[in-house]
Design a protein that fits this description.
5-stranded antiparallel β-sheet; globular; mainly beta
């Protein structure tokens, strides 16, 4: 009996731009970002046209100042360290989507789901050390349903991005499904 091998690729693209000129100041491409166990279940349910347990497609992007534990398959929102929820924002209009055409997203492919969030000059002005996708208005509350994540990425010191009030920030999280 033969076995099938499937590849699932995750890539994060972080772009900072000068708010006045729009010139790209920094582009950081990172892989992998871990899709959690709840994220795996979400994609399986969507693929089978079942009603997903959690509606990550209506979720939020999180860029965090720090984290308590490096990325794992069982990561929850409580792993992010935020003094406020300024880094937790709804996705940009029309996202998530497949076949992203945004040229700033160097991780886009026809068979990827792309999640995108643009942060203005007044948002997320700190060094970003972790990011991910959470349920809408996720919290660190005890109820487990409010804490689940679709994906989670911790950044090494070399990967961290420092955003200032003279910059905008765009974060893309791409989940690509390729059968072999």
């Amino acid at each position: 009996m033969g076995s099938s091998i499937y590849k699932f690729k995750e890539q994060v693209v972080i772009v900072t731009k000068d708010a006045t000129t729009g010139r790209v100041l920094q582009r950081v491409e990172l892989a992998p970002n871990i899709v959690t166990n709840e994220g795996d279940k979400y994609y399986a349910q969507r693929g089978a046209a079942a009603t997903p347990t959690y509606t990550f497609n209506a979720g939020m992007m999180v860029v965090a100042k720090s984290y308590t534990v490096a990325a794992t398959k069982v990561a929850t929102f409580g792993r992010f360290v935020n003094t406020t929820y300024t880094g937790r924002k709804a996705f940009d209009a029309t996202y998530p989507k497949t076949g992203d055409t945004d040229s700033d997203n160097t991780g886009r492919t026809a068979d990827a789901v792309t999640y995108k969030r643009t942060y203005t000059t007044s948002e997320a002005n700190y060094t970003i050390k972790a990011l991910g996708i959470c349920r809408r208005n996720a919290t660190t509350a005890a109820a487990s349903a409010s804490k689940v994540l679709l994906s989670y990425k911790t950044l090494s010191s070399a990967q961290q991005v420092t955003k200032t009030s003279s910059q905008t920030l765009v974060v893309y999280i791409n989940h690509t499904f390729n059968g072999v």
